[in-house]
Amino acid sequence: DKGGWSSFMAKEISEEPEALEATLLGRVHDGLVVLDEIEGGFPDDVLRGVDRIVLLGAGTAAYSGLLGKYAIEKWAGVPVEVELAHEFRYRDPVLSEHTLVASISQSGETMDTLMAVKYARERGARTLSICNTQGATIARESDAVLYTRAGPEVAVASTKAFTAQVVALYLFGLHLGRVRGALSDADSRGLVAELQALPAKLQEVLAQGGEVREMARQMSDTRSVLFLGRHVGYPVALEGALKLKELAYIHAEGFAAGELKHGPIALIEPGQRVFVVVPSPRDSNSLHPKVVSNIQEIRARGAYVLAVAEAGDVAVLPFADEVLRIPLAGPMFEPLLAVAPLQQFAMELAAAKGLDVDQPRNLAKSVTVE
Ligand code: M6R
């Protein structure tokens, strides 16, 4: 039941704030993350002995994994690799009992991911499943499960499951950081509070849906869109591009903004549409001026720039053709806000082209064959 929405995708995007809330529910006590449910497979002493984490998934799930990498390395100080599940098991990955392999899957039935989990297990790694479907095969094949609680996702394009996966990975990173003594309780509490503030902020972002629709309608004959982001904005750029490909059948690529001058800038010609996910100007890594200068570089070559930028960021105004705003959030949490307009954009562009938003051509919701 679409509940009055024009598509399941529209409904599921609107449910993102509750998906985040539900994924946090019962997992925060006294301002700190408590993940009792993974203790069977991953007691604290096992978590303290982990020397490497491999995150596996396909498509959108792999992009949530990329965000998990930034967070887990920062908060827990453990090296993290993200790998496409279908690549992982066809090479000879180095695994040991100290390797934690975490799979990410909405359906929990993706064959590529399932086979990779089995492969990792056979080679002695411990496996954690981040899954949205209760009792799914991948969950049953893993040593422990951390469920995302996004609720059923019907549209082929993943939206609320993605944001819930990121939250689950962040919860895991916060838990690991504290168990390993890498994060103080005070720092943990601050980060948990940021997480808890997200649903309301996301609601604000989603309220700009009308603006995004207008933008998409004006671009319905566009043949190519590029997406740029840096640091945690980079996975957002990849995800924005994937959404546009799968829904609107438009050629779209996501790039790390720092990579521009190493090749992709050659693609820029007058009228090329480019979304840029702009980091906060308050960001202490000072990536903001670097991304603003990327915008200037592509603008000078005729690009039409659509910026997703923090409220109050005036530095982008002289160079961006259109600006979508996101509320202030800590640097690690911006992607959970910035991805929503890109999801909406892909959906609206597909709708403007008269395409089936929920069931794009050639795709299945869950890929249960290799
Ligand atoms: O069910 P899963 O999360 O394992 O599915 C993985 C991918 O097939 C899935 O995310 C796919 O990329 C979506 N169609 C993206 O919107």
What is the secondary structure topology, with strand pairs?
Blueprint: H1 8-14, H2 16-24, E1 28-29, E2 32-33, H3 44-49, E3 52-57, H4 60-76, E4 80-84, H5 85-88, E5 99-105, H6 111-122, E6 126-131, H7 137-140, E7 144-147, H8 160-179, H9 185-206, H10 209-218, E8 224-229, H11 233-248, E9 251-256, E10 273-277, H12 288-300, E11 304-310, E12 322-326, H13 334-352
Parallel strand pairs: 3-4, 3-5, 5-6, 6-7, 8-9, 8-10, 10-11, 11-12
Antiparallel strand pairs: 1-2
Helix pairs in contact: 2-8, 2-9, 4-8, 4-11, 8-9, 9-13, 10-13, 11-13
Could you list some keywords that capture this structure?
single chain; 370 residues; alpha/beta; 5-stranded parallel sheet; binds 5-amino-5-deoxy-1-O-phosphono-D-mannitol
Structural class: alpha/beta
Overall 3D form: globular
| First-to-last CA distance | 31 Å
What is the overall number of helices? 13
Strand content: 15-25%
How many runs of DSSP E, i.e. beta strands?
12
Spell out the helices and strands N to C.
Answer: HHEEHEHEHEHEHEHHHEHEEHEEH
Strand order of the largest sheet: 4-3-5-6-7
Largest sheet: 5 strands, parallel
Uncertain segments: none
Oligomer: single chain
**Share in helix:** 40-55%
Main location: cytoplasm
Organism: Amnibacterium endophyticum
Protein name: Glutamine--fructose-6-phosphate aminotransferase [isomerizing]
Active site: 365 (for fru-6p isomerization activity)
